[in-house]
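Standup notes
- DV: blocked on the single-chain target, sequence here:
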Amino acid sequence: MNLEFVPSEALHLEILVEVSKSTFRSAFEKQNNPEDFKTYLDQAFSKKRLCEEMANPNMHFYFVYLNGELAAYFKLNLNDAQTDIKREDSMELERIYVLDKFQGKQLGKHILNWVKSKASEYKKEFIWLGVWEKNEHAIAFYERNGFGKFGTHPYYIGNDKQTDWLMRLDID
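- DV (later): unblocked, structure below
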């Protein structure tokens, strides 16, 4: 498996917007109210919003290429860019999405291994993330890879208040 992890830069904004919307739509559109979902998609993945996030030195987007083809993307937040826990010894994995065509190829595991090595490089004690409580497939994936639930937080899709599990993985 030939995987390449490429930091996303401003010149990749159009691609980031498209892949963000398409992967989120594929993962969650059917389980949400269409109006709330459209509102969320238009706000969370707008060019303006993603451009602002890319400009933050503590937010890092990465594209994952499999054999030269874009297969996934993820986002890491450090220090004050983290959404809930803003500790210097932690790192948030805010987004990890694999394009439909590449589902079932174990990319998530490879991404998590890469993220763990990055966390070690940054001298972080743990990685944490939020995952929708109804996303049983993702929760099982994170649990299989050593994450454990330590809390919850509200997450809004438009006006719909949902609950995310907060999950943590300690770095050896």
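- Follow-up: The beta strands are 3-7, 59-66, 69-78, 90-98, 126-132, 148-157, 160-170.
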